[in-house]
Each structure stands twice: as C-alpha cells, then as structure tokens.
Amino acid sequence: MEADSFLGLGSESLAPHSRVPQRRLFDAMSKVISLREIIAALEAASDDCTSYLDPETGEIVVVTEEERDLAEDPCWEEAPAWQREMMPKIRAALESDRFLELPDRFDIHEWSIMERFSRTQNIEQIRSELLNAIHGAGAFRAFRSAIRRLGLEQSWYQFRDEALAEIARSWLEEHKLQYT
Fold this sequence. Notes:
The chain is mainly α.
C-alpha cells in the first residue's frame, strides 16, 4: 500500500500492484477526538468562518473568510508576522484531504432546534408563544427574548447543548472517528 493511502492523505489511491482503490484509514490512524472540543467548535460556528478537524492530531483549525482570502493570495508571505504564523495550518486545512470540514451553521440549523424545543413544552400557552416567536423577522431575537421572559433559558441551553452534542456524535460516527 502506498504511504499516502495508508496515512489517509488522499481520498483514494491505488495500491502499487492493483487497480482497486484503497479507502482512507482515518479510523485506524486517527487520534481519539474530544467530543467537547467538537461541540465547542459547533457552538462557535458563524457565517464568516469554517472549522476543520485534523483527525490525526485532534486539532481543530478555525479559518475566517479573511484568512481564507489571505491563504489564496500569492503574496501571503508579505502579511504581518501574526498572520503568517497560522498560514501553514490554514493552508493545510484548506488544501489537504486529511482535514475534515466540521458542520457549519447551515448543517446545525439552529432554527430547527428552537422549533423542536418549542414543541417539547407541555403547557400549550408556552408552546404557542415560543412557536410564534420563531416565525417572521427577528425570529432568533424574539425566541431568546421569550425564553428569558418565560424563565426557560437554562432549559433551552441544556436542550441546545444536547442537540449540538448529537450533531457532533453523528458527524464523528459518520467519519468513523473515535471520541470521548
């Protein structure tokens, strides 16, 4: 087996004397990943950054749009020292098949989590108020305002944390990564 295939550096490669593609061996070669760190990265997800996991080290690399643009700029070496410092990791995350992109805000779909939380409320009036809050302009702000007013903040954040944990577990299992 070629070294690149064995190390999981290519999505597929051929064994030296074979025409059969070899699958990535992340599950055999990867470090045990911290579920907490994956959840923290999901919580920090935003529209202007993307997070990547190096399954061999467990390191999460967060790349902002500005850093992505800089990494793609042929003159990136002229950037200030503090930006150049992170460029090797950022470029590796963007260019290497080894890094895996974590779920983004669209994959997480927080609106759906808010709707599920709302539907779990046993008191009809509370359920209706929360469901009404998530429709229309300013749904996120209206929902947060409603949970504060109704004294449900702690319940909401516990529900949201468990939803993010489930997304993280599913993602890790989909990529056949061990986690603790």
